[in-house]
Structures are given as C-alpha cells and as structure tokens.
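P.,

For your records, the input lines for the assembly:
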Amino acid sequence: MYHGIAALLGRSMKLDARQLPPNLFRLGFVLALYGALLIAQLEAGSFGAPGLRFFQNIAWLNFLVILFSGVTYFSTAITEEKEEATLGLLRMAGISPIGILLGKSTSRLISALILLTIQVPFTLLAITLGGATLDQILAAYVALGAFIIFLANAGLFSSVICARGGTAAALTCFWVGLYFIMPWFAYYISSEIRTAGGPTTTISNWVVATSDLLQQTSVASELSQIVSSGYGDLSDVLPVDEDGQPISSWSWAVWQIRFKMLATTQVISNIIGGLLFFAISWILFDRLTRYERPGFVAERNLFMPIKIGRAQRSPLGQAWQNPLIWKDFYFVAGGPRWLFFRQLLIWIVVIVLYFWMSFAGAFGRGSYFELDQLFAIALTIFILVLIIEASIYSSRIFQTELQNQTLSALLMLPCSVAYLGYSKAVGCLLGLVPTFISIFFAWVGILASSAYVDRTLESTFEVLGQPIVWCGVTLVVIFLNLVTTISLFLKWGALPLSFVIVFFGSSCCPLTYILMAFAGAANDPLGAAAGILINIMAMALISLVFHAVIASRLQALGSKL
Amino acid sequence: MNHMSDDETQAVPPDQVQQPTPLDNEDFEKAASSPAGAAEDASDQIAWADPNHAISLHNVTHRYQGKKALDRVSFVVEKGALHGFVGPNGAGKTTSLKLVCTLLQPQAGRVRVFGEDVVDNIRKVRTMIGFMPDHFSTYRQMTVNEYLDFFAAAYGLPPARRIEVIEQVLSLVDMNHRQNDLISGLSRGMQQRVGLARVLVNDPELLLLDEPASGLDPRARIELMDILRALRSMGKTIFISSHILSELAELCDAVTIIDRGEIRFSGRIGDLLTNPQNRHTLRFEFAPGSPEMREALAQIEGVVSAEKSGEGAGYRVEFDPARLDANQLVVRVASLGVPMVSFSEDRRQLNEAFMDLTTAGVR
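Structure tokens returned:
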C-alpha cells in the first residue's frame, strides 16, 4: 500500500514541479512579496510601523489567495481522474482508496504548505522593518496552515462526491460559505441569549458554549486579531531566571508557551474539520467511485432542459444570427431562465439579509422596514455580484473552448479572431444585463423611497463625476482583461493570480499614481473631467493591448490543437 | 514569406502542364534520392494555381522552434479525389493539414485550395473547407441539433435552410434518431459521426480529415468508410490522414507519403503498389498433387521469375508487362495442362510500400 501511495505522491509532486503553470503561480507569489515590500517602503514615510503594514498585507494576501485558488485547486484532486476515467487504472495498479486519496490530495496540500512555508523567512523582514513580532508571524502562518488543511480536505470531499471539477468547486464554495457564516450566526445566537438574560437551562448553556466556540473557528477573525498591533506580546508571561531577568525568548520554556499560544481554537478546529472531511471521503470513496462513468459528464444547468416538445427542434430555440453570442449567453452565462432564477435568489438573499440586519439592530433600534436601506443593501450587493459575475465570465470565456477542444473549429470559421472574441464577449455581457437591471432597479428604489430625491440624484451624479470612481472602474476593467489573458496560459488560478497582480501592481505602477493625482482634482470641474478622460483613455489603451495579446494567444492555441 | 507569384505559375506553357496527376513514380524516385532538387524538377511542370487542384502545396517549409517540420514540401490533390495522407508519427502530416485549413501560415512556400492562396484569401478558403481534427471537438453540453445549428449559423446559413441542412447531414451520417441527445452521452463512434456532420453543414468542397477512424470499433470504422465513399460520389474532395493503411489502400484513389517533413511519394495508389521495377506478379494455385511447375513457368517468354509460394501448389510468377500482359500469361499457364484452381494479382500492399519509403524510428 505504502509503495502505491509513495508512487502516486511522487508522480504528483514531480508533475507539479515540472509543469510551467504551477511554477508561474509561485513566481507570481514571489513578485507579490516584492510588491508588498515595495508598498511598505512607499508607505514608510506616511505611516508608522512599516513592518506591521508589510506583515498585514502578506497575511491578508495569503488568506485571499488560499481562499480563491484553493477552492478550485483542491476540488479537482479526484474529479480530474473521474473526468479522464483513470480511477480504474489506479485501482488496477493495486492502489487502495486511502492510497489514492493521500496520493492525490496530499501532494496538493504539501505544495500549498510549501508555498506558505517558504514565505516565512521573507516575512521575518517585517520584524526588521518594525511593528511586527516573531510570535505574530508564526501565529499567522500556523492559522493559515490549519485553514489550508481544512480547505484541502473539504475540496477532497467535494471531489469524491461530485463527478465534475466545476460542481466540486461549487460544493467547496458552499463548505467555505458555511465555515464563514457559522461563526457569525453563532455570535448572533449567543448575543441574543445573553441579551435575553443569559443562559438559564442546560440546553441554552450548551448552545452558548457551542456558539462561543464556533466564533473562534474562523481564520478571518483569528487573522484580524493576529495582525493587530500588540498581539502575542510575551513580555508579561515570560518566565524569569534566578536573577529575576526574563529568560531568552529562544529557550525551550518560551517555545512551550509559544506552542500553547499557537494551538488556538481556530487551528485545532480547522485541523479536526479537515481530518473529518478526509475520514468521510475515505468512507465514501469506494461507494461513490466504484462505477466509473467514462468520458465527460454534461455540464448543462437545470434550467436548460434537454427534453423538448414535438414541434420544437431545440429547447433553446435556433441559434441567433450571431451564434457566438447565442452560445456564450446560454453556455457560459447560463441562459435567461438561469439568470432570472439567480437574480430572484439574490433578491431573496438581500431581503432576508435586510430583515436580519434590521432585527439585529444594525440600523439602530426602531428603524425597521426602511425601504431606502433595503435598496441600499441591494445596490451594494448587486455591484459586488456584477464584479464577481464579470470575473467568472472572463475566466470562462475561452476556457470552455479549450476544455471542449473547440478553439480550432471556431478559428476556422470565416471570420476574424477579433469578431470571434468580441462576439463571445457580447454573449457574456448579455449575461450581465439582469444584474445591471437589478442595480438600476435598486438605484430607482433608493430614489423613490428617499425623502430627498433631488439630493439623492445629485449625489449619484457627484459619485459618477469623481475621477477616483473611474480609477476604480479602470482597475476592474484591467483585472477582467488580465483574468481572460491569464486563463489562456493557466489551467486554473487565473482569478486569484490576477487579483494578486492587480492588487500589488496597482500599488506599484506609476500609472495608478498619475490617475490618483487626477483624482485629487475632483473639486475642479475641469480637473475632474480631465481625470475621467485620462482614466477612460488608459482603460481603452490597456484593454487594446490585452486584446492584442489574447488574439495572438488564441491563434497560437488554435494551431496547437 | 517566399510566395511565388501567380504569373510565375501561369508562365508554364499549356503543353507542358501535366494533367492534374501529381508526381509520378519516376519523379518520386528522383525526389527520394535528392528530395529538394528532384521535387523541384517535377514541380516545375505542375500548374500550382490550377483551380482543379483541390490542394496544392508548393515548396512549403515550416519550422517549430527552429526544428523543420516540413522541408520544401510540394504535392497536389486532384479535385474530386479521395486522397490518403500517410506518414510515421512526427512526419509532418498534421502540420500540413493545419496549413491547408488555415490554422497555420506557411513560413515559406505557398499553399492553395482550389487555386486560392490560404494566406491571401483566407476567408474564401475557409468557406470551401471542412476540417475534422483527430480529437473530439464538440460542445459536450449541447445536443446534436444545437451543435450543428450553431455551426450552420456561424457559416451564415439562414434559419430555414439550417433545418434542411441539418436533416440532410444527419441522415447522411445516420444520426437523425439521436439529434436531441446530449453529445456527452454519445459513444465515440457517434461523436465522430457528429464531428463529420459538423464539417458538412457548410457544404464544403474539400474535406480534411485527420485520423477519422482512430479509436473506432470495426463496425464504426466500416460505416465511416461507407460514408466517405458516399461523400466522394457526391463530388467532394476528401484528403484523409490515417494510419490504417489497408483501409486507405481500399478507399483512396491517390496517396501521399510523407516522412521527416519530406514527401516520399505522391500519386495514384496503383502506381505505388506496383513493383518498383515496374514488374507485375500473378499468383497461381494448382490442384493438390500437381507436379513441380517452377521450371515450366520460368520458361514462359516474358516471365522474369517463378517461385513457389506457400505450402501447397502455389507459385508467384513475376513478369514484364512490356513483353507479356496478364491475360496472355494466364492463357499460357493454362496451356501447360496442369489443373489450375485459382489465379490472382499479387500486388504490393500499401504497408509494404510504406515501410520501403519511410525511415524506421520516430523523430
């Protein structure tokens, strides 16, 4: 058994080391570290404790990258074997279920932990720069390491029970959602019980205790404590020697204290959660993967039925005059029924959230059912949804062609690559229309429910007239273009990598500072107009460069297929 | 790019223009001994821009990262022919196909489809060709009908015409009954049929098929060959790259053999299967217990050699067709008075020719 595990693990690790994309991803991370250092250097004059700022940037960057890339990276461990119908071959080679699970998932876990570990020496620079302590840095990495263990095994579990990587990633998103929502929910319950006079019965005692424990399981809240100033100060708890002097911070006694500090509820609970997911995956693995379905499984959503009436030729109707728009609208964005359902679902979430916040007193006591607040929440959520949807479409627009190996067939159509690309983009943009409508509806809702319509209208135009807002739009457009470009080079990780590049690139790039300088002229109408114009020009120019790169890459990929 | 002008091609006097037959055996032998020079001599006589040539490659060279994939490759495919394209792995087959189907641009030389340059008239060329790659190139989440409708619309067919065309191509590949099935649920053979139906929706004159029978079971393979024959009878030109030589020999009118980026043979398949010294062979089977016949057969005028073949009373008789035709030989053998059970033409197999012409090992 061990031979099989070692062989599979070795093969995965070798493959990971040899392939270009994972190495590019690591290189991107190193660049991000340098970016963070550069930002710390730039901010050193304006803020105190540059080391702490550097450490905070690195810690949160790690958290976001683990969160975004981990979901897809870990969720494909077993599904990729299912999609290639190679699980049977692994079994025939005498590798047991636990061997396959360890061999396929542990290599990814090790890869991710290595990526985390190699940063520690660089992050120690934060101590030299001032403001951060060794204990803070260690605590942050241990917390993140435990979170990776949780995420890797949640992803493994999803990949065992799902047939496709996409579905497994969606399920992992659900687990991650639960992971972050549960502590919040626990906080609400315990605070409600305490407000009502505290726990009085055994059950309420148990509920409060469990809720308190759950609140400490989230890596996000743990990390926000760790990166705050003054965390992990051992000076009060350090033992003293015979002369009454504190003993060396490198002595075994101090390390014992450190180990206790590092083993927080979050770390222990995340590791236990990960192990539980692994155990369930092991138990279910044989049952769920015994009958392998060879080839690919259809990825058609529930809202695009296959069964049709006698008179119809297709449930989707005939393709439009520009079939590329039709195809991406249905098969990348999901089609009208799915889009309608999704909007409905988000509106329900918005309304539930509004009532939740309203009852929880987030708007102050006695301010229930204020419609303008409901629409304000809706506007915020739908703008976020718009960015998320656009990011997903950007990453999928050409990835679907690469997965289906249809790029060469498309490139052979009697049209230019530009026509092809822009038609597909229009198809995806159509998928954003319902969200735009919801945003408009939320904005009209704010206007309609506001007592000061004129002022609200005025402030809307004021916001749109701010160069800084257009600077944000430019960054989002660059981000979306970058996601599409990177998705043509990497099989996974385009979204997190683009995020890292834009996050740090925008901080280091001189163009941002030029755009920001114009943003400073917002009070002067001429300056504001110039700022907006420069932003739009920069957006157009950068987009054109990206489009040229995308076109050339598409041509190269098409000729390889 | 080293493009030859159309004027240069037109300058070849009409009496020197070879019929749209590609390089003949003699040319091939020259080319084999001195590939570049000989091919050029033969190629001088071919009207490269002739629209009767479905495909013409003239002195095409293509490199990948400095390594030559094609080295001054020249050959033509006649209009309406079913032309096989064979070669070992890495010989340059797929590169040649990609050049013809406009996915690659030649770094030197010229590629034409029905006389149209694939670089200068790329859109026109794309409307004339249908390329089926060696992998499944399908949207698995679509139904068969949606998939074909998508490509038909992409080629600009109006909605009413699309319905008609899809009916026709599906009936040709015998998939009408599965048109509302998801492609992901189809077997490999059926997906291959859908792929073939896809390349037919724009009614291209030239079909480029890269390993269409790979991975198919014998029944699916035979059915695919039948479909290809049907397409040829409809006047389509089919350029098919395959490793299944026995089927190509049976199916194709002409064949091009490529090895290490150089053309080893391009011409009628009959010419390739003939003995290199242009000698023909007949195989005779006499009744069991017949006397020794080797001496008697060898003494017939025009016979070059006679050898015993197999365990029974079978003989391979090689003869010079210039001195004796096959009918005369059969009459003479029959006149020897020994009961004859059967006779048949003993031709070289395509795989033998392939082995003779290509080099061992992969690049």
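Two observations worth noting. Chain A touches chain B at residues 295-300, 306-308, 313-314, 316, 318-324, 326-327, 331, 404-406, 408-415, 558-559, 561 (CB under 8 Å). The longest helix of chain A spans residues 525-560.

Regards
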